[in-house]
# Entry
Amino acid sequence: MMNRPSKPIVAFAVALALICFTVSINGYGMVIQYGWLFWLAPILLVVGLLSLKRCGVLAFVLYSVLVITIGVAGMLIGDWSRRAYCFNKCRACEPMLEQLSAFQSCHGGSLTNLPPLVMPKGITVQQRILSGDGLNLDDVNQTDATLYLGTSSFICVVPVTKILPMSFTRFYAYFRNEKDRNWKYDYSVWTLGGF
# Structure
């Protein structure tokens, strides 16, 4: 018969869950996902030190699975909370995007000579030029939303995860353009200098 997990193992599992939750809710959940191998070794070392002498190998394996599962649950709850928080920003941007769509339909699809937009309250929005080379995401995390304007199209980006300072990493955000009224949660592969 196996003993119940000791208090230090339970405390470690809760601490790990809180750390994963905090990292994810602040937009850095990709750090955990990309560095899982780096994080796994110290976690197993701590669980081993707390359980191996007392309980044996089977308990070590079971406690390791328990601790990692609780940590992943914390990360998933943090990620879900972050996505809900960012989707509220999307809803706040709706009047601005409706104004753009109305202007576009009245002027034959053109977005030139655009009047000043009604910006959402409590949300920072930066405007960028939409070029044929794609989106330049370099400073997208500096504001709550980024509005890319072209001569006949627009894309609004509300970042969910933070861009990591290494090239070829996934960047998750909500995207909406002039053709679709629904927000899409998707990722882009960020590279140095845009994508």
In short: Helices lie at 7-25, 29-34, 36-55, 57-106. The chain has a mean pLDDT of 82. Strands lie at 125-129, 145-149, 154-159, 169-177, 184-190.
